[in-house]
Design goal:
The chain is mainly alpha-helical. It has one domain. Helix content is 49%, strand content 12%. It has four helices and four strands. The strands form two sheets. It has a two-stranded antiparallel sheet. A two-stranded antiparallel sheet has the order 3-4. A hairpin with a 4-residue loop joins strand 3 and strand 4. The longest helix is centred in the first third of the chain and has 17 residues. The chain starts with a strand and ends in an 11-residue tail after the last strand.
Length: 103
C-alpha cells in the first residue's frame, strides 16, 4: 500500500488516505448509519471517516461482515476503532484488531 506524504523538510509526515471503492464507501456509510442509530454520541460522518481511514490505511475490513455482525461484535469493532484510531496516520494502535478485519 502506498501512503501519501507531506514533506516537512528533513522528515516526512504520512497523510491519511480515505480512498475506497464506491461499493466499499456505500457499505461504510451503512455501517456508520447503523452505529449512529444504536450508540448515543456517535457522529455518523465522523465514524464514516474513521472507518474509511482504517480500511484504506493498513487494516482492511470485511465490511459486509461488520454490517451484518451481531450487536456484541459490531459494538466491539466500532468502539475499538473509535478509541484506538490514530487520526493523523489512519492506523490502529494499542494492539487493537477488529474482529471483522481481513486476516
Amino acid at each position: 500500500m502506498e501512503l501519501a506524504a507531506i514533506d516537512e523538510g528533513w522528515w516526512t509526515v504520512p497523510r491519511v488516505t480515505f480512498k475506497t471503492s464506491r461499493r466499499d464507501a456505500l457499505t461504510i456509510a451503512r455501517i456508520a448509519k447503523r452505529a449512529a442509530e444504536i450508540f448515543d454520541g456517535v457522529d455518523e460522518l465522523s465514524l464514516n471517516m474513521d472507518l474509511s481511514a482504517v480500511h484504506a490505511n493498513g487494516c482492511p475490513l470485511r465490511l459486509r461482515d461488520l454490517l451484518d455482525a451481531d450487536r456484541a461484535n459490531f459494538s466491539h469493532d466500532i468502539r475499538g476503532i473509535i478509541c484506538f484510531l490514530d487520526r493523523e496516520t489512519g492506523k490502529l494502535h494499542g494492539c487493537f484488531r477488529p474482529r471483522c478485519a481481513v486476516s
